[in-house]
Amino acid sequence: MRRQIIIGFIIIVLLGIGIVIGLLLWDDESKQDSTTDQTNSNITSATEEAIINLTDLTTTSESVIFENGSATITKGGSYYVTGTTTGQIVVDAKEEEIVLFLNNISIRSQNAPAILAKEAKTLTLYLVDGSDNQVSDYKTSEYDAAIYSKCDLELDGTGKLTVVGNTEEGIATDGKKITINGGIYDITSKDDGINTGGVGDRITINDGVLYINAKGDGIDSNRDLIINGGTLFVSATGANDNSGLDADGSYTINGGTIVALGMGMLENPSSNSQQITITISLPETISANTLMSLWNDQEQEIISWQSEAPYKTIIVSTPDITNTIYQLYKNGSHSGSLAYGLYVDGTYTKGELVKSN
């Protein structure tokens, strides 16, 4: 009898413990569900409040004002932008940070520029993954670029942005920094492709793909230029004083794959650069659409390219360059595919030797 009482007592205790544990687990799961629901609600709310549709000229944010087909952003925050317009996006948010997530926008502005940051602490243009965005300006205005910023400008993301600078520059700031951390950029401009004007500031390229066809300098920093990574094919085809890479201060190449072509002026990177660069000045102009290939002293292909415009100066830097001894060839053939000016995969069959050292 005593043994039965003890066994019954143990069973009651175990049942009690089980009930307590069950209640605790239920309460914890309930709290997690509540927290998850609240987080999802906050994300949905924030996203809904930050959507700008340029086609319908609609927004769910009180910080966006529409007028004459243009959207003006008056407060800091993140804004998801879609749609098509012939107006502008104007940022006028005092000393606040603005992030524009560009998702398949098309702005062919009749007012120049397509994106204008009049006032902000920082403007970040983030290219949404898989998106194909297009912007261009029109004729002339007091601002000389398709994308013009009076604040520090950052470019990021994994999508694509096509920029046409019909006035002068493709992308420019008024003496403020430009930093590129990612994205694909196809820039055509009447003058410089990318420029920090006025008193100038630093241009820093950390990653991304840049394909630039400029009538002026390809990339022009009125202070310093720092290239840490990315893939750059830059063509400057204007007057003889234009260069693929131009810096009033110094420019440093620490990484990346770079081919920069110009018509006259040729600047060597700083001796502080962490990656070797080959610079070549040719006595005669290389015609547009000419296949070119640079080889090292081991009879190995370093890089091959084809430009849509003529040029006389060449700047090449890749991680594969171990010294400045080279052979430069033109014509011949290549079994690879051409992407943003550079040949990918395949091999080059030699044509005519243009220059060696």
Furnish the topology, listing elements before pairings.
Blueprint: H1 2-49, E1 51-53, E2 58-59, E3 64-67, E4 70-73, E5 77-85, E6 89-92, E7 97-108, E8 115-119, E9 122-127, E10 132-136, E11 145-149, E12 152-157, E13 160-165, E14 169-174, E15 178-180, E16 184-189, E17 194-197, E18 203-205, E19 209-214, E20 219-221, E21 225-227, E22 231-236, E23 245-247, E24 251-253, E25 257-262, E26 277-286, E27 291-295, E28 301-306, E29 311-317, E30 327-330, E31 333-334, E32 337-339, E33 342-344, E34 348-349, E35 352-356
Parallel strand pairs: 1-5, 4-6, 5-7, 6-8, 7-9, 7-10, 8-11, 9-12, 10-13, 11-14, 12-15, 13-16, 14-17, 15-18, 16-19, 17-20, 18-21, 19-22, 20-23, 21-24, 22-25
Antiparallel strand pairs: 1-2, 3-4, 25-29, 26-29, 27-28, 27-30, 30-35, 31-34, 32-33
